[in-house]
Amino acid sequence: MVEIADNADVSADAVVGEGSKIWHLAQVREKALLGANCIIGRGAYIGTGVTMGDNCKIQNYALVYEPAQLGDGVFIGPAVVLTNDTYPRAITPEGELKSAHDWVPVGVTIQDGASIGARAVCVAPLTIGRWATIAAGAVVTTDVPDFALMVGVPAKRRGWVGKAGFPLERVGEQWVCPETGALYVENDEVLREVEV
User: Fold this and answer.
1) pLDDT for the residue numbered 56
2) Which of 17, 75, 116, 185 has the most CB atoms less than 10 A away?
């Protein structure tokens, strides 16, 4: 069963997965593809052709512009913006109003389990790795590795986070999640989980 608020604007050409909920004043454009059990918050915008995996949460007033691609379990905080134009202009160099044919949209790709904090801006094109966390208010301008904790303007890696979202603690040559006890190892600025 899909739940769509009466005043949400969901295109008949969008595909909304089973168990998903779309709240008041949200807009989901044509050819958007939402997986199962997704939640689209009040006033959120999902652009034409955006793809989302299962179990994603898009919080109130977030703007997810096409051609964004979100993996499974992605969290987008309130008022986050995923851009799609590297060099935005309203007019051409000749002073004419630009149309959709005057530019090629570029997207933000967010991989499984990643979280984007409130009012963060992700400037396309870029990829945010699995289980990464972008701090509230950050401005991301470059690709983000798996498990990275990104903070600031422009965003820089300030540590690592585990799958539970908690900052990892260094213990000897490994990183440990204080919440789950999961172990990680770092090699050349790449973090990977230790299989148990």
Assistant:
1) 98
2) 116
Encode burial over 84-112: b for 16+ CB neighbours within 10 A, e otherwise.
beeeeeeeeeeeeeeeeeeeebbbbbbbb
CB 148 within 8 A of CB 135: no
pTM, entire model: 0.95
Q: How far is CA 151 from CA 28, 49, 117, in A?
A: 29, 29, 10
Share of the chain above pLDDT 70, in %: 100
Compute CA distances 37 → 18, 52, 72, 84, 153, whole Å. Answer: 6, 11, 10, 26, 33
CB 150 within 8 A of CB 156: yes
C-alpha R_g of the chain = 18
Question: b/e per residue, 155-184, with b = 16+ CB within 10 A?
Answer: bebeebbbbeebebeeeeeebbbeeeebbb
In this prediction, residue 93 carries a pLDDT of 92
Bridge partner list, 174: 171, 185
Amino acid occupying residue 196:
V
End-to-end CA distance of the chain: 38
List of the chain residues with pLDDT < 70 = none
Phi, psi of 185 (to 5 degrees): -125, 145
Q: How many residues does the chain have?
A: 196
Joined together, the tokens standing for residue 27 give 């807009």
